[in-house]
Amino acid sequence: MSPSEAMERNIRERVEKLDSFYDGIMSCRVMVEASHKHHHQGNVYHVRIDLTVPGHELAVSRDPGLDHAHEDVYVAIRDAFDAARRQLEDLERRQRSQVKMHEVQAHGRISRLIPAEDYGIIETPDGREIYFHRHSVVNSDFDRLTVGTAVRFAEEMGEEGPQASSVRVEGKHHLIG
């Protein structure tokens, strides 16, 4: 169907809201179709939105079925854009969890141990030295650590520079990934 100026303006505003919500939208195609199947009542509108974002194509199809609310084209458009926003929210959640799952923990080898002061130093493959405290060692006894032990750790900024937390000894019973 040919859109009125008001309908086109409404759709453009909703597309802009989607674009401000999800920055990566590359294209958005909206189709509004009037169904003539229900002659005893008004036209029921079918709205389809095709979105392209990096690595994904999303399609929203609001089939009115017997939903008489979709006799109002603006209600049908609103419902379709609400569904598109939910799909973008779901995609964003999946992308965030994928990033978290694929983060590789920093690794290195213990280069110095100072048991009397309850700390040690980890040397990373790029030569940086990272401080760690006895209480940062997970599932291992600090007193059993030796110079040269391979470890994985989470790096954070401490009061005096980078420090390691959640220090885990690598080995045949430890995950490396």
Quick gist of this model?
This protein is α+β, with helices and mostly antiparallel strands. It has helices at 5-21, 73-102, and strands at residues 27-35, 44-53, 56-62, 106-114, 119-123, 129-133, 137-138, 150-158, 161-169.
Which descriptors would you attach to this protein?
OB fold (Dihydrolipoamide Acetyltransferase, E2P); rod-shaped; 9 strands; 2 helices; single chain; alpha+beta; 5-stranded mixed β-barrel
Number of helices: 2
Main β-sheet, in a few words? 5 strands, mixed, barrel
Number of strands: 9
* Order of neighbouring strands in the sheet with most strands: 4-5-6-9-8
What is the CATH first-level class name of the largest domain? Answer: Alpha Beta
Low-pLDDT residue spans: 172-177
> In CATH terms, what is the fold-level topology of the largest domain?
Double Stranded RNA Binding Domain
* SSE sequence, one letter per element: HEEEHEEEEEE
Quaternary: single chain
CATH architecture of the largest domain: 2-Layer Sandwich
Please state the average pLDDT score: 83
* Beta-strand content: 35-45%
* Structural class assignment: alpha+beta
- So, the CATH homologous superfamily of the largest domain? Ribosome hibernation promotion factor-like
Tell me, briefly, the overall form.
rod-shaped
Number of domains: 2
Distance, first to last CA: 54 Å
Give helix % range. Answer: 25-40%
| CA-atom Rg in angstroms | 28 Å
